[in-house]
Amino acid sequence: MPIVFADCEFRYRRGRPLLEGLTLSFSRGRTVLLGPNGAGKSTLLGLAASVLLPRAGTVELGRLCTARRKDLSGYRRRVGWLPQQVAAVPGLRAREQVAYAGWLKGLSRADAWERADTALARVGLQTLAAHKSSRLSGGQLRRVGIAQCLVHDAEVLLMDEPTAGLDPVQRQVFRDLLADLDDRVDVIVSTHQTEDIDASYEHVVVLDDGRPRFQGSVGDFLALSPDTVPSQRRAEAAYASTIRQEV
Q1: Which pLDDT belongs to residue 153?
Q2: Quick one: which of 15, 157, 162, 203 has the fewest CB in 10 Å?
Q3: Domains, the chain, with CATH or none
Q4: Does this model's pTM top 0.90?
Q5: What distance in Å separates the CA atoms of residue 64 and residue 77, rounded to the nearest whole number?
């Protein structure tokens, strides 16, 4: 079930609006969210996660709306959120941190503990389950964050730069994880990396200056690239062309 933005406005304090009149409905399946720094990608995902609330307009998932206080807990149970910065919870070990995230989403302690082990295994961290989160490397901690998204069987996964700080082998683990997700799980991933878009995603949204510049299938996106561009650089060229056309 896709997340839908309708006439959304968001600004920090008295600054200019980062998003204004934004109307956008994400598609089912795996979507990559592209855009330059400052385009509003992290803000958009923060609103989708209900970490941020719009000043105007609505963010909805089915019949649940983040503007209605009574809907928030149900909305958040359906959404998994990986921010850019994953913090280690002081004193907790990796499995405890993932289980705690599941408990916050409404799982019982027993279920959260059991599912935490499975979630860590899916991101290749089962052998470090007993290590304190504060002693993990940045890449390992980011994988703990991904496990936190998976532990409660969310319907929508929101990931902001999930492969930042990961080495090539760890990035492949992430790509394999995306491929193995249940078809009932929708995924929205914000990234600056355009390689392997056609292998990992089905849809593309390009955001710039708080506005969607492109929304469509990966095939339609790659078709924006000139025919003379080598296949391995088509996504990069399509992205540059999309931004350039609208500036």
Answers
A1: 81
A2: 15
A3: 3-246 (3.40.50.300)
A4: no
A5: 11
